[in-house]
Amino acid sequence: MNNPTPSKRITLIGVGLIGGSFVLDLKHKGLATSVVGIDLNHDNLERALERKVIDAAFDHINTEAVTGADLVIVATPVSTLPAVCRQLSTVLENHSVLIDVGSTKQSAIHAFQKYLPHHLPYCIATHPIAGSDRSGALAAQFGLFQDKKLIICPHGQEDSESLNWVSSLWQTVGAQTYLMSATEHDGIFAAVSHLPHVLAYAYVNQIATHPNGQAYFDFAASGFRDFTRIASSHPAIWVDICLENKNSLLALLSGQQAQLAQLATMLKNGDADALYRYFDQAKQARDAWAALQ
Amino acid sequence: MNNPTPSKRITLIGVGLIGGSFVLDLKHKGLATSVVGIDLNHDNLERALERKVIDAAFDHINTEAVTGADLVIVATPVSTLPAVCRQLSTVLENHSVLIDVGSTKQSAIHAFQKYLPHHLPYCIATHPIAGSDRSGALAAQFGLFQDKKLIICPHGQEDSESLNWVSSLWQTVGAQTYLMSATEHDGIFAAVSHLPHVLAYAYVNQIATHPNGQAYFDFAASGFRDFTRIASSHPAIWVDICLENKNSLLALLSGQQAQLAQLATMLKNGDADALYRYFDQAKQARDAWAALQ
Q: Which stretches make up the Prephenate/arogenate dehydrogenase domain (chains A, B) (predicted)?
């Protein structure tokens, strides 16, 4: 594909793993000449300046921070997007393209529609599938999006040139772009991302609050390590995601409870054949998935 | 510590990841001159012979296979241990030390007591904490037990020389040995190993059997990969373990159901503060554990 038009200036709101890594790569590829970072956390801004993730820093959204921005990236926890859009509505220039990178997309589009209705053609909802249990500007890294999936959820009123430009920027940093509706997106990620995070938190809490919890942790090994890795994820980010996508998540939690009830019955009955079929079905499905990665 | 007395001859019943890796290391350290392998699977025996995991092969337990064995290692799925002990009772020589390496220890000791009562002083229940989702003779590897924990569950009638010899063998292949009661062992491993395996199987089955399952798998990423790794574990091995330890596991499954019910309530109420405390408690506990590994 053609090289995307260089983005002369970027404003990054929320200087963390995702936004920080994206602008590092865009600079490295020559697609950004300067990045203005906006973050509530002064220490985080200092680190981002030191590591040259950003070139100027502000602790709140104002005219100076967004003037001249070709691209404004909102990479704050998803629950803050409505307030960010409301604040941007009075300062955003007409030519600036706005993207978010959050894990819930129906809520992102609602925020665009409610607070930036006149800017809607230039608001693009994106979601890079490149999570980590690490967070903050220090977690920003080159190449985070290489060979990762990037989902764009069109709301139907996008300016096509802006949409394609955003898509080309993500492809330039190595991502494979996919289009899907925000509803479909939120259903899929409730299942493959939000639910396992919640289940990992639930499992760790069960162990941690058990009277024998300390002995349990003493003998936990590699299976435990991998199963619980995502329970080290940033709590505030995940509270936001879970609440923004709570209907999908509640349905899935109910489905998980049904699975556990089924398992308990098989165990109580000592039904080795049923347990074998159940475990084997899961192993086959997981192995088939892993073989394609 | 002193070097353990060389084990001139070993009989390994069940030539897989755990038993195969143990004898590979014992040979490498000069502690075994020959290993007789017994396994139901002829292909598996062929591979074990090719890779010099074993030096002779039998497809069933008989006098020839165990005659002259200084050490007999039972490394078959845990539910088979009673039948293995029953068969050994007519062929095992008085001087042979017998160990098992299974993941449930109350059931192991019951099998020793029931089928080998006269041999009990020379029966030692051990459990190396070195799992993998891989299995079979081809999965056997050098150094699997280096810096891993090895638990011995005394039944109280061990010959102390045999007990210390077995302990020294495991230490020689790199393991750190711990002693605890079989009851305590089974409670701990139900919590940190058996429960997460069952939860991983349950989660993968929920996704795999969902009408949108294929789309889910298409967008599953690194969090999913780690959370579900143990669902690729051998189904028959885990059916056995779960049934042998079903009382502990059922109590823990019930505890997990209570965690999920609590989470669903917090989500329904949109209680961000409670969710934050819940997620943060899990993160703190998991981070504290990880910092010690």
A: 8-293
